[in-house]
Please model this.
Amino acid sequence: MKQTAVHLAIASALALGAAGTAQANFKGIAINQIENFTLTSDGTFNVVNSFLGSTAQATWGANSENNGVVNPPYDPEVADCGPSGCNFGAPENAFVQLAGPEPFVGQNWARGDAVIFEPDILNGGAASNVAEVVAAPGTTTPVPGQPSANGVNTLDAQFDLTLSGDQTLTFNFDSEIFMEVWTADESAKGESIVRSALGFDITFTRNSTGDQFTWSPDGEDLNSPDFIDTSDPFSLNQGLVSFNGVGNDTIDEGPSRFMASIFLPGDDYTLAITMTESATGRQVPVPATIALIGAGLLGLSIVRRRRFQG
Model:
């Protein structure tokens, strides 16, 4: 297990965020690391085309940066492909970080980090996504109706499969997740809200009919309409929200083994594996003009009350 990678990511995020936690107004983190991903079958299938890509995005107000790593579609002369998967070569990393106003260590920043450790996804694949946002006190991120600081990551893997007859396919992988949301209780000064979210889905699409079969691990060892869950220890599709100090929470799970199987008739299929992580935050202090108007109205109210009493 390459636990050191996610542990270092968590430690780094916590250390940077904790550098001013007592001062920061919001912090959001979402991390998911997948390892030892395999697809096996009691029959025979062939991969005839493959695609693998990862993207990272960071946004602060009107400023946004993106970075992506895309491996080309399957080429038998370039990719190292076997009967059940393709090895795209060296591990890849998509990373982007964007600082907010007056940046300093651990605060005022948004980042996305999508790493592909083992690109042969169906034969021991490994990848990690990290999203984080941190804002210091007094930092204004006003975008009406929208979070203004974002860290977002996406990993997309697609495979065109030909199944030689009816068969049962089984997925196995290990996952380790970490999530945190934190906001300061300073409602008198304005609004501070942060969200973090995880997403992970495996979908088969039968090319001849368009029928889709999806597994979205949700922490329930209950059979979905399409898949048989053998092991589903915690949800890989969940979110946290904190608002003005209410809802502060941390989730730290794994590493744990996930396993699910599906029976499919022989045919051509498209297999899509998608992993997304996001952290978003907004901090909008009460404008000074509104505060002054409020103070003026309060003063008028007191004066009128005294006149009435007199």
Summary: The first strand starts at residue 26 and ends at 41. The radius of gyration is 24 Å.
